[in-house]
């Protein structure tokens, strides 16, 4: 039977894991979209877990997902600031795969869906981080407006207007990429 500091530490660690481990995928997804690199995202999530664990005694049982994603967000933006100081940002460049010559309608539909998803992914990559994070938190991770406000520390009205602008810019970027691809095929 554990008691004293060791028991409290074990109980605290277990509570921490139960509170935040279910949000690991969402944390990595946000970090990946903000940082544009899987390894950097993994490092950021690991750093966020360490920061969250150290700050866990101050956690008051509010929304664990929002609290943890706030930490992930801070880690990511810190890394982005460091990057900007050391290198110029390069646009994400993903190669398109030529369509398969298959006549199967189901395969063609699936391929079209994949191409559209790729187009949206590339369009999302062109957005500045503050707009990418809005799309990721609300549309990809399914957080409510209040949760996005809690994660970003922005007023609810700002979240709503920034999300609207982000969606507009995403649509415009997707249309521009689509037009460019059609011109390249012609």
Describe the structure using short key phrases:
mainly alpha, 186 residues, Arc Repressor Mutant, subunit A, disordered N terminus
Q: How do the helices and strands follow one another from N- to C-terminus?
A: HHHHHHHH
Q: Which architecture of the largest domain does the CATH hierarchy give at level 2?
A: Orthogonal Bundle
Q: Would you identify the CATH H-level superfamily of the largest domain?
A: RNA polymerase sigma factor, region 2, helix turn helix motif
Dominant shape: elongated
Percent helix range: over 70%
Question: How many strand segments?
Answer: 0
Total domain units: 2
Largest sheet: none
- Note the gap between the termini: 74 Å
Average pLDDT confidence is 81
The CATH class of the largest domain: Mainly Alpha
């Amino acid at each position: 039977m554990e008691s004293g500091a060791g028991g409290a530490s074990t109980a605290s660690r277990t509570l921490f894991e139960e509170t935040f481990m279910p949000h690991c995928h969402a944390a990595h997804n946000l970090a990946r979209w903000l940082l544009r690199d899987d390894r950097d995202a993994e490092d950021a999530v690991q750093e966020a877990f360490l920061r969250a664990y150290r700050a866990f005694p101050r956690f008051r049982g509010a929304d664990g997902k929002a609290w943890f994603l706030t930490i992930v967000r801070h880690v990511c933006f810190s890394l982005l600031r460091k990057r900007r100081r050391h290198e110029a940002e390069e646009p994400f460049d993903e190669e398109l795969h030529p369509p398969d010559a298959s006549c199967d309608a189901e395969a063609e539909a699936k391929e079209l869906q994949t191409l559209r998803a790729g187009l949206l992914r590339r369009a999302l990559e062109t957005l500045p981080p503050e707009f990418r994070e809005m799309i990721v938190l609300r549309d990809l991770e399914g957080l409510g407006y209040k949760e996005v406000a809690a994660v970003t520390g922005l007023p609810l009205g700002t979240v709503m207007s920034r999300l609207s602008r982000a969606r507009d810019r995403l649509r415009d970027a997707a249309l521009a990429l689509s037009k460019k691809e059609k011109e390249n095929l012609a």
